[in-house]
Amino acid sequence: MEQPPTPSKTWGLTPYELHRTPQEAVTDNTEIAVSPRSLHNELMCPICLDMLKNTMTTKECLHRFCQECIITALRSGNKECPTCRKKLISKRSLRPDPNFDALISKIYPCRDEYDAHQERVLAKLKQTMNPAALTQNIEEGLRQQALSRNQRKKVTDSESNDTPRKHHGNSDESAGENSMCGDVSSEGPSTGRPTNKSPPEIELVFKPHPSHSDSNSTQVRYIKTTSNASIEHLSKYLAMRIALEKQQINPGARILSNPPSDKYNIFISTSLAEGLLLLPGNLSLAQTSEKYWHSTKPMVLYYALDLQAC
Fold first, then answer.
1. Which of 136, 161, 181, 277 is deepest in the core (most CB within 10 A)?
2. pLDDT digits (tens, 9 = 90+) for 85-133
3. Is 105 left (phi over 0), alpha (psi -120 to 50) or beta?
4. Cβ-based neighbour number of residue 297 at 10 Å
5. Using one digit for the tens of pLDDT, what is the confidence trace for 172-213?
6. Do 35-126 and 201-305 fold alike per CATH?
7. Where are the domains of the chain?
């Protein structure tokens, strides 16, 4: 009896692979400058937060870890990728990556010298760190966490004390409330209340404004955040990040204890003649994407220092 042919395995492309722009290979003597911070993030193990050693790569999601770190994590009963939570059955889901180890050895030929440099940097940061400002920042963080916990507790208590209402008759008010409850229950369990779903995330590419003249803020930045965040949130985030980067360039500067006074304007490219459009601060990222950005690619925004606010 003839057996049916075995179906061939099919491979599906992700939306990123479908829409990404292919990059041409560099075949000449062009030199590419990479910041030490971004390079260190690529060479860092997500478990021990140190440089990768005896690199192991997951076969499913291609995330890299130190061999000792990932095997210890699997033996402890965590059968998933520590980075993306994809299922890892056993050590068979890992493969060694000697090419990446060779790349690290090319960039850092002496591992002991790198470790000594890291210790010197940490010692220098401890010397320049202001204990009073650090204590103040920690206390402020703990206070904000306590306020957030109290607010969540109040919301939970108010929801538990709510009792379902009984509707009698066929009045317009009863019909309207019943129809509203029906619409809500279609989103989740039939409890008369919507389920708490976290808002979707959105990917952003931040580029400096073409006419921006501040040499300290010319870096292209990649951000992934909730779509409920507003343009004003992004402006404050940029001011804080750029202020911290300026402080790292000048280690002797005083550690930030108050929000920076600089304000950054956020722009988006449009098809109109004026080119870049200034976005209002109260506009959310979801509204910005729906109104100006009709693409599945990461949304491209531009930032520039607001000279009028300085």
1. 181
2. 888 888 888 999 999 999 888 888 877 777 787 788 777 777 766 667 7
3. alpha
4. 13
5. 444 444 443 444 333 444 444 544 566 688 888 888 888 765
6. no
7. 35-126, 201-305
Helix, strand, coil share of the chain (percent; to 5): 40, 15, 45
Structural class in CATH, domain 201-305: alpha beta
Burial 177-196, CB ≥16 within 10 A → b, else e: eeeebeeeeeeeeeeeeeee
Evaluate if pTM is beyond 0.70: no
Other C-beta atoms closer than 10 Å to the C-beta of 259 total 10
Q: Which tokens in the block code for residue 233? A: 């949130």
